[in-house]
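Quick one: structure for this chain?
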Amino acid sequence: MNLTRKTILPFTALCLFTSACVSPEVVTVKTISDDALTCSEIKTQLGQLQQIQKEAEKGRTASGENVAAAILFWPAVIGNNMNAKQAQEAATARQAVLVDLYKQKRCK
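Got it. Here's what it folds into:
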């Protein structure tokens, strides 16, 4: 197969711009091992959720990366926004689960 500059250059640009998109983690809301979490582990997970929510917010705002993606590859913006929304919703739901667990265990 003869790959020319006309093929390689657009493909490389596409890879670079789609990899620049924010892709925050979509967390699991409730796990089977939640009841075994210690107060310290709950606090740690709550801190991690704040980071995930910040990353997700980046995916929903008009950052330089998102604007570049919109200009060069607009479907990436749609996917990026949908993933960010899912990540924020899951993180908020997970946070509620952890806060309830924190209260049940009477953590301080």
